[in-house]
């Protein structure tokens, strides 16, 4: 009787439920249309408020500036609310009724992934939800081939996304330097920083680079062009570290305050550690040279792009040591012979890194051995064979060990 009852009242098979589902599918497009119209109206309102606010900034009218700034923020909030409403009322029903495309299903899944951040990581949730809603709307406008709307929307979109990405990265920076252990593994935070920078470089920077002011930033253009080499093909471990190094260099241009020097230094140190581990891993393999060249390049970038801009040092001797390094580097840069210049820079970087590794409490014996062997190859160190004697059965047996001595 219970089985018959379940079969009889199975809601998926009842006549009225079937009719209801069909009516829902017929009426849903109307609901989508209403929501799309409301989003379009709210978009027009926020863009109008944005351009009015930007125009008043050029004038010296504090009272109107405050009024228009408030108007802009209000229309922006209503704009996001209309997109959020579309997701909850339309997109959700479309997925539920199996009318959604794969893109729409992924969009809803991403939405709930962000919502789940709310309880544990509210600050990240606040920024990421706004970013997600704007991205979804921008993709919709772009897919609709609304060129005029897109051109008008670009300055507003880039400015807002700049602000949101800076907020996300700053939040991760705070987590990285926090020593209370209330956040997840530090390696995960490092990865989130690099992933977020890459998100920005991939989706926002190309739009931003259309502005004339950005085109004039030669350093940014060069770094971006280098980054684009990593967009095609499968990346190995060496490529991933090199790409992260470029992303970090771009972040020093775009997110100077959101990714403070102390946090950027921690990121560089993390990449240096990964590069050293990779060199040890590939020692003796055909990938060794690539790993070694990457490490040398990373040491140079760390010293030139970060330490050279450092103002505050923990200890006075650290600053003095870097000044000494910097003077030697500049002297090498003045050399005319390119081969000699390259070798002398390599020697300087290795020696400098050796000093730091010898100070560390961690076990760096393998990488230190690699460095010393390379210095022998470069003629800066030599091997001395020492033969200490041991007694075995009243006879002496020689035991050879290699000792490296600086020339």
Description:
This protein has 407 residues and is mostly helical. It has a domain at 1-145. Helices cover 73% and strands 5% of the residues. The protein has helices at 2-8, 15-57, 62-96, 102-115, 122-143, 147-177, 186-203, 205-208, 212-215, 218-227, 237-254, 261-281, 288-306, 316-333, 338-359, 365-377, and strands at residues 381-386, 389-392, 395-398, 401-406. The strands form two sheets. The chain has a two-stranded antiparallel sheet with strand order 1-4. Strands 2-3 form a two-stranded antiparallel ribbon. Helix 4 packs antiparallel against helix 5 (122-143). The longest helix is centred in the first third of the chain and has 43 residues, at 15-57. It is elongated, with a radius of gyration of 30 Å. The model is unreliable at 1-13, 15-32 and 395-407 (pLDDT under 50).
How are the strands of the biggest sheet laid out side by side? 1-4
Runs in which pLDDT lies below 50 for 5 or more consecutive residues are: 1-13, 15-32, 395-407
What fraction strand? under 5%
Termini separation comes to 96 Å
Shape: elongated
Helix-strand string:
HHHHHHHHHHHHHHHHEEEE
Sheet of most strands: 2 strands, antiparallel
Portion in helices: over 70%
Query: In oligomeric terms, what are we looking at?
Result: single chain
Structural class: mainly alpha
| Overall mean confidence score, pLDDT | 83
The tally of beta strands, per DSSP, is 4
Helical segment count: 16
Radius of gyration: 30 Å
């Amino acid at each position: 009787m219970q089985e018959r009852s379940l079969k009889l009242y199975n809601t998926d098979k009842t006549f009225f439920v079937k009719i209801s589902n069909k009516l829902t599918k017929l009426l849903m497009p109307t609901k989508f249309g209403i929501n799309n119209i409301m989003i379009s109206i709210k978009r027009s309102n926020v863009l109008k408020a944005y351009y009015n606010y930007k125009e008043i900034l050029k004038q010296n009218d504090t009272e109107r500036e405050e009024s228009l700034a408030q108007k802009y923020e209000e229309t922006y909030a209503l704009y996001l609310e209309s997109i959020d409403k579309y997701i909850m009322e339309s997109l959700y029903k479309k997925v539920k009724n199996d009318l959604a495309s794969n893109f729409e299903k992924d969009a809803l899944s991403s939405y709930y992934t962000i919502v789940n951040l709310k309880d544990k990581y509210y600050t990240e949730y606040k920024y990421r939800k706004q970013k997600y809603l704007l991205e979804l709307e921008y993709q919709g406008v772009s897919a609709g081939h609304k060129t005029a709307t897109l051109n008008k929307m670009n300055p507003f979109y880039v400015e807002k996304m700049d602000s949101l990405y800076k907020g996300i990265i700053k939040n991760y920076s705070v987590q990285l330097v926090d020593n209370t252990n209330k956040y997840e593994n530090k390696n995960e935070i490092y990865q989130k920083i690099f992933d977020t920078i890459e998100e920005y470089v991939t989706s926002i920077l190309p739009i931003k680079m259309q502005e004339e002011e950005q085109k004039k930033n030669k350093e940014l253009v060069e770094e971006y062009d280098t980054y684009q080499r990593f967009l095609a093909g499968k990346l190995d471990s060496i490529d991933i570290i090199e790409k992260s190094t470029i992303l970090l260099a771009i972040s020093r241009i775009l997110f100077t305050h959101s990714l403070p020097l102390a946090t950027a230094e921690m990121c560089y140190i993390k990449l240096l550690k990964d590069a050293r581990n990779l060199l040890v891993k590939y020692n003796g393999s055909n990938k060794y040279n690539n790993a070694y060249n990457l490490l040398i390049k990373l040491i140079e970038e760390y010293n030139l792009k970060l330490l050279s801009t450092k103002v505050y040092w923990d200890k006075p001797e650290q600053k003095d040591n870097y000044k000494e390094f910097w003077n030697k580097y500049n002297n090498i840069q003045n050399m005319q012979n390119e081969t000699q210049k390259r070798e002398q820079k390599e020697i300087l970087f290795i020696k400098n890194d050796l000093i730091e590794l010898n100070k560390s409490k961690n076990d760096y014996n393998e990488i230190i051995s690699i460095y010393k062997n390379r210095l022998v190859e470069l003629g800066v160190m030599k091997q001395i064979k020492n033969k200490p004697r041991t007694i075995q059965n009243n006879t002496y047996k020689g035991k050879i060990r290699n000792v490296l001595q600086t020339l």
